[in-house]
Design a protein that fits this description.
Elements lengths: L8 H7 L16 H13 L10 H7 L5 E4 L19 E4 L6 H10 L4 E5 L21 E3 L20 H11 L4 E8 L11 E3 L1 H17 L4 E6 L2 H10 L9 E3 L6 H8 L8 E6 H4 L3 H10 L5 E4 L8 H16 L3 H15 L8
Parallel strand pairs: 1-2, 2-3, 3-5, 5-7, 7-8, 8-9, 9-10
Antiparallel strand pairs: 4-6
Helix pairs in contact: 8-10, 10-11, 11-12
Bound molecules: zinc ion (ZN).
Length: about 350
């Protein structure tokens, strides 16, 4: 029997057994060498610490703070907090087809604060396909020593092919919306496979390419996630006709090497479209490298984000991210807020007048 992961509650339970986990994601094992490098990074973090601003100063700062990338819909209990947030705007990123209605609901509830963003996150790429007869197992890359039947029930779920038409409708219905969160992740393990399978890179790339092209068609920016795959992402951009790429492209929680920044910004024909966003949530895991990579980013391309999964931690997350960027760039907190806020306005220029 074929079931859609989105229509049958029992099947859905297998696909998303625990809500509000950090995307139900498994991180790969960390080698001793990488562990040591993280310890060194933590020591370097001491240079990032800045005394917290006073309440008066904080409210002045928040006149110029907006969140370029967050997921408050993941914590339903925290949603009421959105009303009390000091951050001026929130770009709320959708994760998968059945998550998009939650993003739309938030936009309806807070029309002057929420920018709706619709996309398929790479951690859910395995649920979205292109053919009528596709199953999750068709897009999985399974460890060589394992049989398909040991991978878990998720393998027998049929792929959604309605996502593309739905995304198109949403982009039409919400003129302030952008495409996100999309991208590629070579480290993520698929939920429901007992950590035994990843989504094929080719499938993730095709999904990303389709969504970028939809964004271009509707002249919307896109917010991208990329883990251990910056080379593949750059290849995709290099081979694409610029007409099929979005007008502005955010690399969120950017974790590439400093030289990778130049690889994007100096890319022929499309280098001027890239923005780099930094979050306390992700980027603080490697603070020394983060400072170095932020310094490589042109001042007018740096964005501030929380990437948190609860409205309750958005303001604090943004302030912490702001401290890191200010430290890297040698800016005061006030300068950092003003510059990144202007960059936010440039990136979301077509979304702001409508919210
Ligand atoms: Zn995200």
């Amino acid at each position: 029997m074929r079931l859609s992961p989105f229509s049958d509650p029992r099947q859905r339970q297998k696909v998303f057994p625990r809500r509000v986990q950090k995307y139900q994601y498994s991180t790969p094992k960390i080698s001793r060498r990488r562990k040591r490098s993280r310890e060194l990074d933590t020591q370097a973090m001491a240079t990032v610490k800045i005394d917290g601003p006073s309440t008066e100063e904080t409210s002045r700062l928040f006149e110029h703070i907006a969140d370029s990338h967050c997921h408050p819909q993941e914590d339903p209990d925290g949603l009421a907090h959105i009303e009390r947030l000091s951050s001026k705007y929130l770009a709320v990123m959708g994760l998968r087809e059945d998550d998009w209605p939650r993003v739309a609901e938030l936009q309806a509830a807070y029309p002057h604060k929420v920018i709706p963003c619709f996309g398929v996150h790479p951690w859910f790429a395995h649920l979205h396909g292109f053919r009528n007869d596709g199953f999750v197992r068709d897009v999985l890359e399974i460890k060589a020593d394992l049989e398909l039947q040991n991978v878990g029930d998720v393998a027998d779920v049929s792929l959604s092919i309605s996502w593309e038409a739905t995304l198109r409708k949403l982009l039409e219905a919400y003129p302030s919306s952008i495409v996100g969160e999309i991208g590629i992740d070579k480290a993520a393990v698929v939920l429901g496979t007992n950590n035994k399978a990843r989504t094929r890179l080719s499938h993730q790339l095709e999904l990303t390419e389709r969504q970028l092209s939809l964004a271009a068609e509707y002249n919307r920016p896109a917010s991208l996630h990329c883990v251990r795959a910056y080379g593949h992402l750059q290849d995709l951009f290099r081979k694409s006709d610029p007409c099929t790429l979005p007008p502005r492209i955010m690399l969120h929680s950017f974790g590439g090497n400093p030289e990778v920044v130049k690889g994007f910004t100096r890319m022929p024909r499309v280098g001027g479209r890239f923005y780099f966003s930094f979050s306390n949530e992700i980027n603080c895991k490697t603070p020394a490298k983060t400072l170095e990579r932020i310094r490589q980013v042109p001042d007018d391309r740096v964005l501030l984000e929380s990437d948190t999964c609860s409205a309750t931690t958005i303001d604090s997350g943004l302030l912490e991210s702001c401290k890191i960027i200010a430290e890297a760039k040698g800016w005061t907190l006030q300068q950092c807020c003003e510059i990144t806020f202007q960059n936010f306005r440039d990136f979301y220029v077509d979304s702001l007048p409508k919210i």
